[in-house]
């Protein structure tokens, strides 16, 4: 993209995004979200609040879901980032969550959708790794995969707001994938 | 006749009970390797889960209304733009990387009233990458707009805190933000007043409220009738300011090419954006192109042009570069409109057997000093119940506050919260079941106008909802059901929303390859306009759905009204229906092959869509809620939520259900989590961002069931549809509030029902 992003103090970083390496000079003020959207043209990650309050910018950094609006790009040298555009690999086959969102009509305006899907991918991995949530039964053995019922899914996706109110359908879609 | 598929895949199939769940065939553009099955929503409705009980996992099929014979309409066709949205390919207004594009960042006024005496831009302009700072003194001069909120940077006046007083433009968003922060604005302050109260000396009764309704309606002698009524409820409710907060902040990318202007903007109505820009910039409309291909929600706040599009166009004019202005989230509450706070006084007088004698609904609200906007919250009381003596009035107080505007179901949402809560109080006073009370007051004709209803099935919605919800098992006594520390309760409220429709144009084209293109500058803000308009077209053309392509979201398409007032599909669909009906007739008369350019027909529904009707036309519905109130924390959680609607013919079962559920979700937020505060000393909103203004999150929202009864209304439009985008929010908050009363025995009259309010009352009264 054309934006000159070296107006302030800047540093060179290299990161992989959706499997492709990029070496960029980044303004120290630039967050990962703006690097994706403005420098790499990956506008699938959305800017809803720019303050980590809505989750629309959620991507996977080194396999973990993150609010990309809160991460300064300069701190991510060497990171591996996956965005909504990279979830389906070569793009020929949709990710099962993308397919499930379509099948369940789990969105309306679509603006929160990439974040919801990336968040769900990260969430499923967290549960599989045994991370408890606020609603996990404390008696569950630690370190073992946490079974995800609808209450668990809702709790774990609560960082991703949807103003159109597609929540019940989003939970349906996630359930479809874990069944 | 146009070519037809011998084995049409159109949903609904034949008349003899073919599976009505098979969705429409795939849009051609979605037929791609790997994505095909998903994109078409194939079989999805079959495996849709139940939503009547939390946690239930049994699979049931949706009970779709049976589509009419051979009809695409009614089918659960999948969204045509769905693949783009789930893959991240859908481009919204700020995502057009035009060559040389730069960024604008607004500077909000730091005082509540006064004027700008100076703007020192030197520090901002000294920053690297900063191109310009537009100020009230030097911004491009605009023609005077009809909508005074768009007279941006035209004079030094500051009508409220947050009003835009400068715009910084820079090469990157970061530099623009830093530049905006470096702009030094000096002001001459004046005393301001941001306090709404009914006895405010500046309060007046407006001639009209929003929607063109008279500010006052009085029938009979309501005060005397109320005074003489055997059973009386005299109560008051308050709805706080509310914010639309669509997930996509208001954003525009503007690009000038000589005297031609192109804007990519997040708008619910591009045709109006073009005409407003043409006026402001004194350009012929032909030189302006407005593109709103995907819009990240609006809920009324993008219904007319907002400051982003004007600022972006001015900044692009000044700098000669394409400019994106994306309002920061925290700027939205003061910038794009809000639902004005409403103070309601309700007086209901009834006979001992529950027949209303008098209904008095008096609303006080605020507007800004910029323009008059009156939330028409007393209007639904003119439609709902058979009260021979009726008073419905509005009083408005102009204050030094941001300008209110449309938010989903303006008028109906707060008004029905108050009326339907008061009806619940009346049911309690009468010892009458609240469903029965409403049925007993079903009017023969529209109470406000005396006109016959084109159709009205509120009673059927109440009965069907009660049946599904298990209402007959309800113990009416409040405060008697506990589950450990939880108090449980159920509540009901009615819903209504007027049928609106506006003239639109559209074209339909038959192409030699057997496909059809429908063009209309509709806006798809998440409703699925592309999809439902293709369904309208397919039915009118008698062709399979997959033969029809829809083009929407650009002003080089035939002009169309906005997506608002729940009128979009009716307005656009009417024109599409006419164009396609005409085209089908042309094709039927055609001898020989189609010309290579195809055949195009054009429709303009002016004179029909806006014709006077002898009927009162409204959609109705009923909401049922079950809540659990935690006596330890004061938290209210909704366990079940059911909406049953009578909204004419439902044109797409899948997207309609999503809209109903979405409206109910926003109603849940209105009831429990959403509340904004006008900070009197500062004159703006305390809850300015999504960390403080709580829109419902996943964990707040249970499984929500929305369904409808079939309604055949010949007095609407060729599709027989009423609007569905707003009615879901109407009455939902009352149903939840009534359930909280049923659970706790305490009547709460201020929204939202947050734990502090609930716990305080439980401690005082419990």
TrEMBL record, chain A:
This protein's UniProt keywords: 2Fe-2S, Iron, Iron-sulfur, Metal-binding, Oxidoreductase
MF (Gene Ontology): 2 iron, 2 sulfur cluster binding; metal ion binding; oxidoreductase activity, acting on the aldehyde or oxo group of donors
PROSITE patterns documented for this protein: 2FE2S_FER_1 (PS00197), 2FE2S_FER_2 (PS51085)
Cited SUPFAM superfamilies: 2Fe-2S ferredoxin-like, CO dehydrogenase ISP C-domain like
Pfam families per the UniProt record, alphabetical: Fer2, Fer2_2
UniProt cross-references to InterPro entries, sorted A to Z: 2Fe-2S-bd, 2Fe-2S-bd_dom_sf, 2Fe-2S_ferredoxin-like_sf, 2Fe-2S_ferredoxin-type, 2Fe2S_fd_BS, Aldehyde_Oxdr_Iron-Sulfur, Beta-grasp_dom_sf
Domain 2Fe-2S ferredoxin-type: 11-87
Keyword Iron-sulfur carried by entry: yes
Biochemical pathway: Alkaloid degradation; nicotine degradation
Coiled-coil boundaries: none
Name recorded for this polypeptide: Oxidoreductase
Source species taxonomy: Bacteria, Bacillati, Actinomycetota, Actinomycetes, Kitasatosporales
């Amino acid at each position: 993209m054309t934006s000159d992003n070296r107006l302030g103090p800047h540093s060179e970083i290299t990161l992989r995004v959706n499997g492709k390496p990029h070496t960029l000079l980044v303004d120290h003020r630039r967050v990962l979200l703006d690097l994706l959207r403005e420098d790499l043209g990956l506008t699938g990650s959305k800017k809803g609040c720019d303050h980590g309050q809505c989750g629309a910018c959620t991507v996977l950094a080194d396999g973990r879901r993150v609010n990309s609006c809160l991460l300064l790009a300069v701190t991510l040298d060497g990171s591996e980032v996956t965005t909504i555009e990279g979830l389906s690999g070569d793009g020929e086959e949709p990710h099962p969550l993308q397919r499930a969102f379509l099948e369940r009509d789990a969105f309306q305006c679509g603006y929160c959708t990439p974040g919801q899907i990336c968040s769900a991918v990260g969430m499923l991995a967290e549960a599989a790794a045994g991370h408890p949530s606020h609603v996990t039964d404390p008696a569950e053995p630690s370190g073992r995969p946490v079974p995800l019922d609808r209450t668990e899914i809702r709790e774990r996706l609560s960082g991703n707001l949807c103003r159109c109110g597609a929540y019940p359908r989003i939970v349906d879609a996630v359930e479809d994938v874990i069944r | 006749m146009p070519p037809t598929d011998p084995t049409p895949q159109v949903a609904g199939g034949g008349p003899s009970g073919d599976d009505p769940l098979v969705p429409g065939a795939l849009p051609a553009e979605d037929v791609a390797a790997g994505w095909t099955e998903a994109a078409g929503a194939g079989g999805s409705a079959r495996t849709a889960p139940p939503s009547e009980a939390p946690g239930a996992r049994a699979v049931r099929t949706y009970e779709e209304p049976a589509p009419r014979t051979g009809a695409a309409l009614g089918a659960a066709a999948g969204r045509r733009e769905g693949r783009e949205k789930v893959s991240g390919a859908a481009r919204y207004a700020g995502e057009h990387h035009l060559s040389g594009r730069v960024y604008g960042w607004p500077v909000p006024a730091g005082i509540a009233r006064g004027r700008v005496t100076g703007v020192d831009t030197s520090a901002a302009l000294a920053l690297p990458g900063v191109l310009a700072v537009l100020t009230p003194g030097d911004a491009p001069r605009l023609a005077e707009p009809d909508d005074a909120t768009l007279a941006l940077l035209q004079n030094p006046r500051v009508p409220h805190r947050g009003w835009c007083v400068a715009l910084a433009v820079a090469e990157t968003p970061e530099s623009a933000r830093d530049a905006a922060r470096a702009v030094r604005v000096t002001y001459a302050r004046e005393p301001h007043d941001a306090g709404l109260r009914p006895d405010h000396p500046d309060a007046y009764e407006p001639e009209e409220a929003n929607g063109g309704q008279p500010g006052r309606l009085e029938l009979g002698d309501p005060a005397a009738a109320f005074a003489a009524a055997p059973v009386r409820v005299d109560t008051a409710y308050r709805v706080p300011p509310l914010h639309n907060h669509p997930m996509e902040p208001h954003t525009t990318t503007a690009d000038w090419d000589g005297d031609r202007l192109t804007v990519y903007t997040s708008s619910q109505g591009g045709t109006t954006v073009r005409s407003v820009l043409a006026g402001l910039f004194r350009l012929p409309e032909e030189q302006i192109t407005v593109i709103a291909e995907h819009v990240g929600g609006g809920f009324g706040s993008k219904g007319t042009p907002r400051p982003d599009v004007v600022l972006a166009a001015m900044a692009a004019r000044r700098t000669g570069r394409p400019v994106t202005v994306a309002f920061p989230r925290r700027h939205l509450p003061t910038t794009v409109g809000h639902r004005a706070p409403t103070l309601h006084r309700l007086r209901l007088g009834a006979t001992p057997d529950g027949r209303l004698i008098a209904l008095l609904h008096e609303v006080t609200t605020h507007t800004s000093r910029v323009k008059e906007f009156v939330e028409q919250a007393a209007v639904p009381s003119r439609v709902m119940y058979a009260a021979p003596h009726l008073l419905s009035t509005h009083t408005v107080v102009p204050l030094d506050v941001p300008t209110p505007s449309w938010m989903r179901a303006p008028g109906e949402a707060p008004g029905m919260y108050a009326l339907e809560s008061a009806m619940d109080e009346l049911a309690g006073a009468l010892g009458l079941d609240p469903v029965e009370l409403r049925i007993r007051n079903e009017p023969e004709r529209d109470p406000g106008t005396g006109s016959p209803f084109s159709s009205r099935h509120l009673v059927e919605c109440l009965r069907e909802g009660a049946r599904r919800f298990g209402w007959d098992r309800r113990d009416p006594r409040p405060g008697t059901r506990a589950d450990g520390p939880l108090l449980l309760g159920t509540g009901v409220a009615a819903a209504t929303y007027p049928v609106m429709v506006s003239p639109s144009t559209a074209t339909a084209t038959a192409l030699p390859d057997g496909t059809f293109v429908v063009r209309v500058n509709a806006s798809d803000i998440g409703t699925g306009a592309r999809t439902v308009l293709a369904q309208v077209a397919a039915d009118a053309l008698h062709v399979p759905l997959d033969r029809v392509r829809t083009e929407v979201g650009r002003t080089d398409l035939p002009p169309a009204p906005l997506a608002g007032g729940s009128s979009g599909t009716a307005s656009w669909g009417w024109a599409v229906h006419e164009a396609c009906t005409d085209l089908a007739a042309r094709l039927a008369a055609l001898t020989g092959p189609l010309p290579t350019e195809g055949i195009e027909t054009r429709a303009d529904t002016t004179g029909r869509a806006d014709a006077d009707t002898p009927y009162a036309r409204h959609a109705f519905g009923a909401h049922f809620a079950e809540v659990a109130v935690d006596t330890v924390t004061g938290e209210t959680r909704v366990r079940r939520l059911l909406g049953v609607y009578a909204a004419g013919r439902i044109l797409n079962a899948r997207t309609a259900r999503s809209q109903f559920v979405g409206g109910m979700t926003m109603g849940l937020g209105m009831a429990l989590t959403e509340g904004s505060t006008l900070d009197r000393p500062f004159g703006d909103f305390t809850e300015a961002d999504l960390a403080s203004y709580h829109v419902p999150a996943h964990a707040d929202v249970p499984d929500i069931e929305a369904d409808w009864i079939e309604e055949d209304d010949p007095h609407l439009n060729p599709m027989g549809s009423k609007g569905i985008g707003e009615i879901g929010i109407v009455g939902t908050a009352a149903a939840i509030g009534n359930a909280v009363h049923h659970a706790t025995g305490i009547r709460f009259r201020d929204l939202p029902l947050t734990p502090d309010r609930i716990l305080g009352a439980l401690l005082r009264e419990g």
